[in-house]
Design brief:
The protein is mainly alpha-helical. It is built from 18 helices and four strands. A four-stranded antiparallel beta sheet has the order 1-2-3-4, with no helix packed on it. Helix 4 runs antiparallel to helix 5.
């Protein structure tokens, strides 16, 4: 999965850094002792009692992880971990896939240690906790500590403790996500977000909210995903390119609330008109609801009025026409005329884009791809044409389209400063020049040039 925020898969709390974990029996006994103290009426009025209980829960939470837990995120390998474990040996070693990556898992009595394909220590999977729901117990103890701390003398300790609980839930959420258990991941990300709101820490963890929504949706829990994504919007958190709006649009559509989906998508479009996922969501809404797609151009016109010098808005306009063209059904009345109308409008929009900003490579790319894809369509038609004259006419038209694609692609290659983008453009240029290879030395030279760029992955 791509759209999750990869919080550090390590214990982020400073207060536990480099701490030696307690043996399971010792940790469990400490929890029981601290619990008993908290039941004493006199001791329960003291902040130290609750801080001790909270710490005992956190020690119990960390105990199964072994003394190598502090080495996560340091890039160390199995040998360094083995030294930290002072002779403790794994009972088994397995090849596993975690987060889509091949990994090696070492099995210990209370946990599994996972190493990535580079041999780096990346994750701990606890298989035998000392105390169930230790983090929940720690959080409740920190709440009580804050409640009885009338002089607020331990605010720093309580705040750091709550942050540690929230970060530990994040860690558990990421581990569950890597294991492919999205439902459990969503639960832990949600708990991380809730913990971060506890006084006196009281911080909105938008990354945890987003991850909770994303994994809830991935697990099929649409209502849960809606709750977390709506909270993201409440806190003005939209993720990359307004992805939260796009996800909520998808969710409301699935919940058969198309008008609400449209409302959310339009809000997102006004903030992120360049978002392809928001744009496609809106286009699908207007096409499926059979409403006037002119509303899309009203939105883009409003965005242009706010930012008349924003070249990307013209690029988006071209994309709208392109998507509408793709949506035309072959059997609908006037299909070819509609497709041509949208094609011409898209080309015009891409040309306006580079007039506004001649250095904006995507305007050139949009135009080039439009002609290139049209050429592919013509080639497909030609391959199914048995009439020789019509076949040759289609091929001639295809070559004209490829010729028209050459210049914008070359312009994009020349103005772009992004190596990866230039290499992608070079792939198109290589293919086009290969088609014209026999037509002249300039095409042969161009093909050789772009072929070398594609093979090397480095634009010159």
């Amino acid at each position: 999965m791509k759209k999750i925020i990869f919080a550090l898969v390590v214990l982020l709390s400073v207060q536990f850094a480099n701490a030696q974990v307690k043996p399971a029996a010792t940790a469990k006994k400490a929890v029981e002792s601290a619990q008993a103290a908290s039941q004493d009426a006199k001791k329960a009025t003291k902040v130290a009692t609750w801080l001790k209980l909270a710490k005992s829960y956190m020690d119990a939470y960390n105990s199964p992880k072994g003394n190598a837990m502090n080495m996560l995120g340091m890039g160390v390998g199995q040998q360094e971990v083995a030294l930290q474990l002072a002779g403790e040996k794994p009972t088994a070693t397995e090849n596993v896939v975690l987060g889509g990556e091949p990994c090696i898992k070492e099995v210990y009595a209370t946990r599994d240690y996972v190493y990535n394909s580079k041999g780096q220590f990346v994750t701990i999977i606890v298989t035998k906790p000392v105390v169930e729901d230790a983090l929940a117990g720690a959080l409740e103890a920190y709440k009580k500590a804050y409640e009885v701390d009338a002089k607020q003398s331990k605010i720093k300790d309580i705040t750091e403790g709550i942050a540690a609980v929230s970060n530990s839930y994040l860690d558990d959420g990421m581990t569950a996500y890597m294991l492919g258990d999205n439902a459990t991941a969503s639960k832990y990300f949600g708990l991380a977000a809730e913990a971060s709101l506890v006084e006196p820490y009281n911080k909105v963890n938008t990354e945890a909210l987003y991850n909770a929504g994303y994994t809830a949706l991935a697990s099929g829990n649409v209502e849960q995903a809606k709750k977390y994504y709506e909270k993201c919007l409440e806190h003005n958190y939209y993720y990359e390119n307004g992805e939260v709006f796009a996800k909520l649009g998808e969710i409301y559509t699935n919940l058969e609330q198309p008008e609400k989906a449209c409302e959310i998508l339009e809000q997102g479009f006004m903030k992120y008109p360049q978002s392809q996922s928001i744009l496609i969501g809106l286009i699908n809404y207007y096409l499926q609801s059979k409403k006037d797609t002119g509303r899309l151009f009203e939105l883009i016109a409003a965005a242009k009025a706010n930012e008349p010098s924003n070249a990307s808005l013209y690029y988006v306009e071209g994309n709208i026409y392109n998507e509408l063209r793709q949506a035309v059904k072959a059997d609908e009345e006037g299909a070819e005329a509609k497709k041509q109308e949208y094609f011409d409008a898209a080309i015009k929009a891409y040309e306006e884009c580079v007039k506004v900003n001649p250095e904006f490579e995507f305007g050139y790319i949009g135009k080039g791809i439009q002609y290139y894809n049209y050429a592919v369509e013509l080639q497909d038609k030609a391959s199914n044409e048995f009439n020789q004259a019509k076949y040759e006419a289609l091929l001639a038209e295809m070559e004209k389209a490829l010729e028209k694609a050459l210049e914008p692609f070359e312009q994009a290659y020349n103005v772009s400063k992004d190596n990866a983008l230039r290499v992608n453009v070079a792939e198109y240029l290589k293919n086009i020049n290969y088609r014209f290879y026999s037509k002249g030395a300039e095409y042969e030279a161009a093909y050789n040039k772009y072929n070398e760029i594609v093979k090397s992955g480095q634009a010159n």
